[in-house]
Amino acid sequence: MERSRDPITDAPLTPEHAEELARTMHALADRTRMLIVSAVLHAPDGELHGRDIQRQLELRQPTASHHLRKLVRAGILAREQRGPYGYYRVVDGALADLCRALGS
Amino acid sequence: MERSRDPITDAPLTPEHAEELARTMHALADRTRMLIVSAVLHAPDGELHGRDIQRQLELRQPTASHHLRKLVRAGILAREQRGPYGYYRVVDGALADLCRALGS
C-alpha cells in the first residue's frame, strides 16, 4: 500500500494526509485491535498466524476474523496464506508514518 | 494526566493499556482533530491560541471548540487560559506513549 508523505521539511499535515491518518487511527481505536497489533509486533518473527492470535488473546474465531479483516483493510496488517491459516505481520511503514505525523 | 506504561522490557500491551490507547486513538480518528494536533505541533512555540487554530484551519468557532474540547478531554492537548482565549499545546508524552506501543 503506497502512502502519501509530507515533505521532509516537516510541514504540517495536508488535509488529504490527515484524512488518511484518521482512517488508520479509526482502525486502531479499539482495545482488541490494539492488542492484536501489539501481539504481532512482539511475535518472535514479527508474524503470527490467525489461530495463534485467537488463542493468545482468547478470542472466538469470528471475533478474531472480524478484527483482523479491519486491520488488513486499513493497511495496518498484511495477510499471507500458508496452509490452512493466514499469517499476519505489520505492514512496513504503516505505523511509522502515523507516528512521524504525531511528532514522535 | 498520569499514563500507565508497560515495563521497559517492551512487553506486549496489557488490556488496560490497550483500552487507554484505543481511547486516545479514538480522539485522533478524525481529520480535523489530526489537523489541529499537527498545527499545534508545528507552531513556533509549540502552542497556539484558539483563535489562531480557528483561522488557520478555517473552522467555525463552535466546530473548533468542539474538537478542541475532545482533544483536551482525551489528554492530548492541554489548555491554558491567557486573556480572552485559551492557549493549546500537546501534552508531554501523550503521543510518545502511543507510538512506543506501536513500535515506533
Fill in the keyword field for this structure.
homodimer; 5 helices; 3-stranded antiparallel β-sheet; alpha+beta; elongated; 3 strands; disordered N terminus; 104 residues
Give structural notes.
2 copies of one chain form a homodimer. Chain A is α+β, with helices and mostly antiparallel strands and 104 residues long. In chain A, 52% of the residues lie in helices and 14% in strands. Chain A has 5 helices and 3 strands, in the order ααβααββα. In chain A, strands 1-3-2 form a 3-stranded antiparallel β-sheet. Mean pLDDT of chain A is 88; it is low at 1-9. Chains A and B meet through α1, α2 and α5 of A and α1, α2 and α5 of B.
Summarize the helices and strands and which ones pair or pack.
Two copies of one chain form a homodimer.
Chain A: H1 15-28, H2 31-42, E1 47-49, H3 50-56, H4 61-73, E2 77-82, E3 85-90, H5 94-101
Antiparallel strand pairs in A: 1-3, 2-3
Helix pairs in contact in A: 3-4
Low-confidence stretches of chain A: 1-9
Largest sheet entry of chain A: 3 strands, antiparallel
The SSE order of chain A reads HHEHHEEH
Structural class of chain A: alpha+beta
Mean pLDDT of chain A: 88
DSSP strand count of chain A: 3
The tally of helices of chain A reads 5
Major sheet strand order of chain A: 1-3-2
Question: In oligomeric terms, what are we looking at?
Answer: homodimer
How much helix, percentage-wise, in residues of chain A?
A: 40-55%
Which geometry of chain A do the CA atoms define?
Answer: elongated
Radius of gyration of chain A: 15 Å
List the chains of the largest interface with their residue counts. Answer: A-B, 35 and 35 residues
Quote the distance from N terminus to C terminus of chain A.
22 Å
Beta-sheet strand percentage of chain A? Answer: 5-15%
